[in-house]
Each structure stands twice: as structure tokens, then as C-alpha cells.
Amino acid sequence: MTEKFHLGWFLNFVADEWNGNWGDGGRDFTGDFYVDVARDFERAKFDYILIEDKLMVSTAFGGTMEHDLKHGINPKHDPVPLAVLIASATNHIGVIPTMSTSFYPPFLLARLCSTIDHIARGRFGWNVVTSGEDRSAQNFGMDKLYEHDERYAMASEYMEVVSRLWESWEPDAIERDYETGTYANFKKVNTIDFEGKYYKSRGPLNTAPCPQYRPTIAQAGASPPGRELAAQHADTIVAPANGVEAMKAYRDDIHDRMTANGRDPSECKVLYLVSPIVADTHEEALAKRDRWFNTPSYIEYMLAEISSITEIDFSQFDLDQPLGELTTNGERGSLESFLSRGKGKTLREIVTGSGLTANIPLVGTPAEVAKEMGDLMEQVGGDGFLITSPVMRLNRRYVTEITDGLVPELQKLGLTRSEYTTTMLRDTLREF
Q1: Does 152 count as an annotated binding residue?
Q2: For residue 247, what is the DSSP state?
Q3: Binding site annotation covers 134?
Q4: What start-end ranges are recorded for coiled-coil regions in this protein (predicted)?
Q5: CA–CA separation, 38 vs 393, rounded Å?
Q6: What's the CATH code, domain 6-279+361-430?
Q7: Residue 370 region by backbone torsions, left for phi larger than 0, else alpha for psi between -120 and 50, else beta
Q8: CB-hemisphere CA count at 13 Å for 97?
């Protein structure tokens, strides 16, 4: 029998479905739309919402900003204030915004995370990324990013700095002793005096220890350096769903790396990125998939999206010819997942599969897809799924189809939680 697995939602703080019937029409960016859907995710008992981010408008597709702006791919708002807003409007679900080690000073990020974990009452997480776009680097006074593996070497040192800062206050440093008039015991608050190859910080952090003591850490690295960083620090990992064998191999590799780093593999949950498509009948679900993924507008959107992520200009390739070998200094895991849809396939065939998560289709009625997800987890061995809209722009209809259609079927099968039983995000992830 398949064991219970975890659910997360992968969110973009971009214009929602502004050109359809089921968004807010892109009228404003108050965050109200996202608070509404966050409450839906909480009602469906999702573990967390992970909020993606980029720090630029891309020119990767065709050498111009035109397509990035036309399709609303990278115009997006800062995920951190949205995480605070969602945390304040919910009671149980975790919130995990993305922040880049390449551009945040370590002390600033450590302090920010600690503060928000207090506001979120222990439900805050940080999605650790190194960024993969030269256009982002140029917004911060650099000509280009550091080379891929060096970015991860820097991130490893960065994680050491912020971890020491979070631990610079001993858990019981705050005494609130009315008799002595002591708020915090200075003997239990320590400088870190860190000086590494890339970073230097005296410390201590000047915020009280957060409820989780260190925020929940999420990571999405698929390359060997990314996997190693995740194995050392992550509580949850975003992984590509590249088929059963690849998914199992990824999880086994992470577990081996965690063991080598002296960590219990059960302390980190690997969630695979998928975009289920459900409808009242199997035929309707297939029709919906074909209607969504075979239009010229969708193809252009997806090519601009994958160009932005990988910094490879996919406008240079013939849609009706197979792709050759490609390399990038950008997001290597995303490129690998995209190309893994089938050697020998044309670019058009790759793009029109099912968004960026086409390797695991998951198309059918809610009951059919729920069973398929259960079977898949049983074959892989765990730990769950990170669901995202197939076209990245969120709409209420898709959210409702998942939260009120698919999730109840998963719960009927005993595959996902029906209630929250813990108060802090890390504990929620480690419950099973």
C-alpha cells in the first residue's frame, strides 16, 4: 500500500491569468488574489507554498525583451512581502519565498528570515537559489554571473554564514528575568567572527531566535553541486519529474549524499514538480490538454519561458527539427528536464507536451489522476509532489480543479493529509 505523501504548490508572483476568464484580470498587485488561493491550498491541507522569483526582464529569446514582456513571463513582484501577507492570512500552511545567494548580503537575509519566521509563527522557509541569468547580475552592478560551479561553492559558504548567524543566539538566550531586569543573557549571544573565501561577518544576529531556530530550507539544484548543497542543508527539495527511473535515481542520490554528510535522509522531503490536468471525463481532460498546448501563442510562450530559465535562445532553432546537445551556465536542471522529454523529438513535439512538467502527464479524471499519483509515489519511494499551473500563470479554475477535485480523491485513498497536526513547517514536513 502506498504511504501518505506531501503536497506543495509552486507559485509565480506574476500577473495572473490577465487574458482569460478565471484570474483577476491583472488589475492590481495587492496580493489579495494570492491570499485567496493560499487559503484554498490551506483548506486542501498543502504543506507549503513555494514562491519562485527572477530578478530581471529576460532578453534571452530573440535577443529582445519583447516576448518576455508580451507574455508576462518575468515581470513579477518580490515574493518576500507576499510571503508575509500569506502567512498573516493563514494558520497552518508554510510559505517559502525564493531569495538568491548571489545578490542578498548574508546578514540581511539571515535577519529577514528570522523576522518573518516570527511573523509566520514558525511556518517560514527560504528557497535557496544562486540565480542563473546574466541579466540579473547586470542589475546588481556585475557584467555576468560567476561560473555555475563557483556559484554553488559561494552558496555553500553563504549557507555556513547564515547558519552560524541563526545559531549566534543560544535557544534559551532570552530570559525576561524581571528580578534582575535582564531581557537576554549576554553570555548566550555570541559573535560568529566568520571569514571565508567569499564572505565575512562578525555577528551576532540582532534578532531573537526564530520559532524554528533556523527557517525551513528548500533547494532545487539538479546538478551535482546543487544536489550536494541540498544534501547538506535542505528540508525539502524541488525535483524534476523526469520519469520513474530518473525520479527514483535522484531521490536515492540525495539520500546517499545526506548519509555521507551525517544527515538522516528522512529529514528532507523530495517533491516532484507536476501539472495535473483533470476534468469530469478522461476525454475532456485530453481535449483540455490539446487545447492548451498546441496553439502558436502557447508555443511562443513556452519557448520564451525556457529561454529565460536557461539563457539559451530557442528562437534560433527550427521547430520541426530535433534539438542537438545544449549546455548552459544557467539552470542546468531545467534544461536537462526539458531535453529529457525524448531524444529525436522535434522542438515542437517537446514544447507541446504539457508545459514544463511534461515527462509525467497526469491527465484524466480526479480519481484517475489520484490513483496514478499514488502508483507513481509507490514506485519512486516518496516523498510527494509540488504542483504548478501548466502555463505558470495562475487562475482560480485550475486551483479549484486541484483543491476541490483532485485533492479530495487523494484524501479518500489516504494518500495525503486530511488535517494539520503540527504548528511549524519543518515539523509538518517530518510528520511522515
Answers
A1: yes
A2: H
A3: no
A4: none
A5: 15
A6: 3.20.20.30
A7: alpha
A8: 23
